[in-house]
């Protein structure tokens, strides 16, 4: 028998154009847009801590690229200098520590994720280097993975922290503990973001009375859910909520004033 030719290889998956961006048809992400997630922290920390030389390091996909584009504009407008920038494959972040150090930055904007973020911060601490580090994906589990921090120079910019002292957050934590027990997995921004996404989808379906994407898209604006961040309402397929700045203090975060 004649063996048919093998099918051509599938093209690599394309990164979602709405990862943190929003605004695209048929998408209603409840997360924070890139311009709001980290760029205000770059400006505020740069002014307060005297950071003038920044290195931007992230994993190579759409979200870090969008964040960096916004941050570069804001940093330069504030008179700061971007001394280096690199997007790295997952698993290769630590290899860039020496090159980052060679640029003598005052501050690092880190859009690394997962184990790359943990590994890079562990290597950075072990190296004895000192610089302000502002992270866009550092939550409670990752801070534990790093082993905590006592330098006062490790920051996270997130829409949600487990210890937000707001009625919505405290109430959510109480309900979570009552439902899943004292030994339940630690609340964190990534897990809470998944909760918000499912809740938003359920609200859209209930409002549309349908599961069809065009019907959901038609009712997106004005759809509201309640989460640990309070009331979230879609407008132009995005939500607008404060972003909080947390400074690592041992194994916890000390929360500073949110961005408006």
Helix content: 25-40%
Helix tally equals 9
Name of the CATH first level of the largest domain = Alpha Beta
User: How much strand content do the residues show?
Assistant: 15-25%
Q: How many strand units?
A: 9
What is the rounded distance between the termini?
69 Å
Q: Can you give the mean pLDDT?
A: 86
Count of folded domains: 2
Spatial extent as radius of gyration: 20 Å
CATH topology of the largest domain: Rossmann fold
CATH-defined architecture of the largest domain: 3-Layer(aba) Sandwich
SSE ordering: HHEHEHEHEHEHHHEEEE
The CATH homologous superfamily of the largest domain: Response regulator
Largest sheet: 7 strands, mixed
What strand order characterises the main sheet?
2-1-3-4-5-8-9
Structural class per helix/strand content?
alpha/beta
Low-pLDDT parts are 1-18
What would the principal axes of the Cα set say about the shape?
A: globular
